[in-house]
């Protein structure tokens, strides 16, 4: 702008401006419902299939929760290893992080699915090792590598002066970590960790490619069974919508945390 | 091909089965897959950068009718799985297009992968560029204005050169993510390196061996992208401003 | 208005009003600057001094009032082209230097003459080198702004403004962001410009400097001109009690905390 005009109150256009996208989407949906008028034969099968779809999505969420839980535990252990003053201990951690951060998610999922056996023998009993659990492992591996990185970044972001100050007070290395550094790290780790969780959740969609009966697999079965154009459009839109409804609030909350952190 | 023999023999000692490399057909399909992945990477890199610039321009345009829908598109793309987006494009859009124009649908699976990944990563580029543009100090732009720069001159001589410098690290990261994302092409049977490997390991049951090759291949690609990015960052570095 | 008012002033502000949202920053400003004069504007922080300068070069638009720069009625300008024509004639030096960090010192000096005025590159470079010599930075032409000290950056910024061969230069608190050691070198550069007859308007907190170099001094507070006159009159016999209170505070502090701001050698030139 060549000149900045200082205007008075701009509240009303501002609201319109901020919600323009949402208003437009809503309008498009209304127009579609009114004009396109999706007929009953499209919505009826969707209603019929919705329990199966929701069950599939529940499996996606279960996988994501297990993967992030496992990945976090593993990642923190590796992160702790990476903090060690001994080079020999840091090396395997570094290798782990490099290998699993730079590998495509899909390739890792293929890896765990095809390399692990379908059942494991524990104390004479054969325990089934289902595909969805293998996918969980396949997602937990990159999750752990990323958690380790997030952890390292958080520790590095604590100013060195705090280490010095604590050392001058006579704290030992372990004490400084436990009492001073780690409590601050937790707060800094939360936004990137939640970001990672959203990524892992979206990664669960790949489970369908190795035959896990998740949301997308169910949607594919449904479209092949019903075999109607309108239904196909609707069901994939619903899949998109379900993932969005789950991940968008997470990303909004992450952004809120980041902003709050930035202003502190 | 004696060194291939030697390699297969040597890895055989380690318990790894790379005998497919001695089969001309299977070796050929693996190499072809690697070449397809490379083509995918190059096409989507160019495509995603173009999309990113366009979306960033829309986001900072200050026109609500343009920025609003773009924002919506950005949020939906960021918060849904790429695989579902690929299906929506390849299974739904492609089907609708085929219905409208009949059998002569010009969109191949390869094209759909390029389009979807370009749009997906373009969104992330756009966010990086937007942040870069917002990081340009207002006072620097004011200085350009006070020197009599026109809007266009100010944009091309001051605002964009600075914004790209601020955004470059994120852009390079996005491109590395993009390289990994091209593995998704195998989901709709585009013959990339992953797909070629699947075909081989279903025959020979040597998953681990191929997995190592794939990971090395993607690692190499990421490494190259990273090096190019770092090189560019060094070239565009502003002395005295450490990032 | 100034006493020796024979010809039309180069800058004339009449009844200038400007508010940001609910804050009234300028509340009726009148100010005249003759060609070749140096005019200082002093006053407490937040009294609208910088806003005033930005209005003169069209970076801000007042809600009411008239601004004339030579024949140009700035308050009537609308198109970008008209503003660009104005800004070619008016140099501006910022508190924070605002050099372009991605360009070398020489490029900072040549980009506007080449791109805005359409001068030849060679010619612009020769001129830029001459100007760098003038601000005593001829050895820094290949350096980048981030590698220079604050005082050096500010001198480059002055040279950048001069490279446009402007009719007048506006200085917006150009020493406020500097380390005390580098203030002197910047003031020396400005002093030399004034001695050469460049029309200058300075917003400044350097009272001693303003007193020494100005032809006229304006004191602003709360968006109005409280008092103006010759530096001798305003600094020694202020008419308004507001001016007196401000000067007492400002000079008292200056005397205690700052070393003499005028390098002894420079004053003799």
UniProtKB/TrEMBL annotation, chain A:
Protein name, as recorded: Polar amino acid ABC transporter, inner membrane permease component
Protein species of origin: Azotobacter vinelandii (strain DJ / ATCC BAA-1303)
A UniProt-annotated Pfam family: BPD_transp_1
Gene3D superfamilies per the UniProt record, alphabetical: MetI-like
InterPro entries: AA_ABC_transptr_permease_3TM, ArtM/GltK/GlnP/TcyL/YhdX-like, MetI-like, MetI-like_sf
SUPFAM superfamilies: MetI-like
Any one GO BP annotation for this protein: amino acid transport
Topological category with respect to the lipid bilayer: Multi-pass membrane protein
Localization per Swiss-Prot or TrEMBL: Cell inner membrane; Cell membrane
Residue spans crossing the bilayer: 20-37, 57-81, 196-216, 228-250
Family the UniProt entry places it in: Belongs to the binding-protein-dependent transport system permease family. HisMQ subfamily.
Keywords for this protein: Amino-acid transport, Cell membrane, Membrane, Transmembrane, Transmembrane helix, Transport
Its biological purpose: Part of the binding-protein-dependent transport system for glutamine; probably responsible for the translocation of the substrate across the membrane.
A GO MF term: transmembrane transporter activity
Domain of life: Bacteria
ABC transmembrane type-1 domain boundaries: 57-244
Any single GO CC term annotated in Swiss-Prot or TrEMBL for this entry: ATP-binding cassette (ABC) transporter complex
From TrEMBL, chain B:
UniProt entry keywords in alphabetical sequence: Amino-acid transport, Cell membrane, Membrane, Transmembrane, Transmembrane helix, Transport
Coiled coil feature spans: none
GO (cellular component) term, any one: ATP-binding cassette (ABC) transporter complex
Domain of life: Bacteria
CDD domains to which the protein is assigned, alphabetical: TM_PBP2
Compartment annotation: Cell inner membrane; Cell membrane
GO MF annotation terms: transmembrane transporter activity
A GO biological process held by the record: amino acid transport
SUPFAM superfamilies, per database record: MetI-like (SSF161098)
UniProt keyword Cell membrane, yes or no: yes
Domain (ABC transmembrane type-1) ranges: 34-229
Protein name: Polar amino acid ABC transporter, inner membrane permease component
Native species: Azotobacter vinelandii (strain DJ / ATCC BAA-1303)
UniProtKB/TrEMBL annotation, chain C:
Family matches, as InterPro entries: AAA+_ATPase, ABC_ATPase_HisP-typ, ABC_transporter-like_ATP-bd, ABC_transporter-like_CS, MetN_ABC_transporter-like, P-loop_NTPase
PANTHER family: AMINO ACID IMPORT ATP-BINDING PROTEIN, GLUTAMATE_ASPARTATE IMPORT ATP-BINDING PROTEIN GLTL
GO CC terms, sorted: plasma membrane
CDD domains per UniProt: ABC_HisP_GlnQ
Organism this protein belongs to: Azotobacter vinelandii (strain DJ / ATCC BAA-1303)
Taxonomic placement: Bacteria, Pseudomonadati, Pseudomonadota, Gammaproteobacteria, Pseudomonadales
Entry similarity comment: Belongs to the ABC transporter superfamily.
Keyword Nuclease listed: no
One protein family per Pfam: ABC_tran
Record-annotated ABC transporter domain positions: 11-247
Its membrane topology: Peripheral membrane protein
Protein's recorded name: Amino acid ABC transporter, ATP binding component
Main subcellular localisation: membrane
Cell compartment(s), UniProt: Cell inner membrane
GO molecular-function terms, A-Z: ABC-type amino acid transporter activity; ATP binding; ATP hydrolysis activity
């Amino acid at each position: 702008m060549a000149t900045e005009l200082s205007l008075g109150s701009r509240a009303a256009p501002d609201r319109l401006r901020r919600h323009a996208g949402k208003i437009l989407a809503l309008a498009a949906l209304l127009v579609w419902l009114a004009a396109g008028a999706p007929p009953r034969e499209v919505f009826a099968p969707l209603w019929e299939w919705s329990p199966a779809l929701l069950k599939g999505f529940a499996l996606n969420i279960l996988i994501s929760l297990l993967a992030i839980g496992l990945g976090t535990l593993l990642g923190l252990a590796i992160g702790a290893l990476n903090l060690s003053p001994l080079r020999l201990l840091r090396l395997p951690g570094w290798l782990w992080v490099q290998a699993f951060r730079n590998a495509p998610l899909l390739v890792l999922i293929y890896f765990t699915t095809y390399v692990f056996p379908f059942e494991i023998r524990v104390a004479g009993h054969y325990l089934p090792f289902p595909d969805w659990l293998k996918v969980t492992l396949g997602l937990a591996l990159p999750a752990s590598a990323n958690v380790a990185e997030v952890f390292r970044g958080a520790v590095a972001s604590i100013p060195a002066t705090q280490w010095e100050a604590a050392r001058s007070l006579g704290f030992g290395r372990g004490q400084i970590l436990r009492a001073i550094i780690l409590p601050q790290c937790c707060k800094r780790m939360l936004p990137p960790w939640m970001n990672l969780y959203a990524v892992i959740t979206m990664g669960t969609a790949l489970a369908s490619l190795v035959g896990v009966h998740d949301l997308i697999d169910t949607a594919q079965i449904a479209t092949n069974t019903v075999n109607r154009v309108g239904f196909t459009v609707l069901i994939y839109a619903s899949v998109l919508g379900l993932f969005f409804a789950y991940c968008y609030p997470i990303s909004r909350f992450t952004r809120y945390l980041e902003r709050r952190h930035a202003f502190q | 091909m004696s060194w291939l023999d030697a390699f297969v023999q040597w890895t055989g000692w380690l318990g790894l089965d790379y005998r497919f490399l001695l089969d001309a057909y299977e070796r050929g399909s693996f190499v072809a897959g690697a070449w397809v992945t490379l083509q995918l990477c190059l096409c989507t890199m160019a495509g995603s950068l173009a999309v990113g610039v366009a979306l960033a321009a829309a986001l900072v345009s200050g026109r609500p009718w343009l920025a609003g829908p773009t924002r919506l598109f950005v949020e939906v793309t960021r918060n849904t799985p790429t695989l579902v987006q690929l299906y929506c494009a390849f299974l739904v859009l492609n089907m609708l297009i085929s219905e409208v124009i009949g059998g002569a649908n010009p969109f191949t699976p390869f094209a759909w992968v390029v389009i979807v990944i370009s749009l997906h990563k373009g969104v992330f580029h756009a966010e990086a560029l937007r942040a870069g543009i917002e990081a340009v100090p207002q006072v620097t732009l004011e200085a350009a204005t006070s020197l009599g720069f026109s809007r266009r001159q100010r944009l091309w001589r001051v605002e964009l050169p600075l914004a790209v410098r601020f955004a470059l690290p994120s852009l390079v990261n996005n491109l590395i993510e993009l390289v990994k994302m091209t593995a998704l092409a195998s989901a709709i049977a585009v013959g990339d390196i992953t797909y070629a490997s699947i075909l081989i390991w279903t025959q020979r049951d040597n998953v681990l061996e191929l997995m190592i090759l794939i990971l090395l291949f993607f690692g190499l690609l990421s490494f190259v992208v990273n090096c190019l990015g770092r090189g560019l960052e060094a070239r565009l570095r502003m002395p005295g401003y450490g990032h | 208005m100034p006493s020796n008012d024979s010809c039309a002033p180069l800058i004339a502000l009449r009844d200038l009003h400007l508010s940001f949202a609910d804050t009234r920053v300028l509340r009726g400003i009148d100010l005249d600057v003759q060609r070749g004069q140096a005019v200082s504007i002093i006053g407490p922080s937040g009294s609208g001094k910088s806003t005033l300068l930005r209005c003169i070069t069209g970076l801000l638009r007042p809600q009411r009032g008239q601004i004339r720069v030579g024949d140009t009625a700035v308050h009537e300008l609308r198109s970008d082209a008209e503003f660009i024509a104005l800004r070619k004639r008016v140099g501006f030096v910022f508190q924070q230097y605002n050099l372009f960090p991605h360009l070398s010192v020489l490029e900072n000096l040549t980009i506007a003459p080449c791109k805005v005025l359409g001068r030849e590159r060679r010619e612009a470079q020769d001129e830029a080198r001459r100007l760098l010599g003038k601000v005593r930075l001829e050895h820094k032409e290949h350096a980048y702004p981030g590698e220079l000290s604050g005082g050096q950056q500010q001198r480059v910024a002055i040279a950048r403004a001069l490279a446009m061969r402007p009719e007048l230069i506006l200085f917006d608190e150009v020493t406020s962001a500097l380390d005390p050691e580098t203030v002197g070198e910047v003031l020396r550069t400005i002093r030399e410009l004034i001695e050469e007859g460049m029309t200058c308007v300075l917003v400044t907190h350097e009272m001693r400097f303003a007193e020494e170099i100005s032809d006229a001094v304006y004191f602003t507070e709360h968006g109005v001109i409280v008092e103006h006159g010759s530096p001798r009159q305003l600094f020694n016999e202020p008419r308004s009690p507001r001016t007196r209170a401000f000067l007492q505070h400002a000079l008292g502090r200056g005397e205690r905390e700052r070393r003499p701001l005028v390098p002894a050698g420079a004053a003799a030139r």
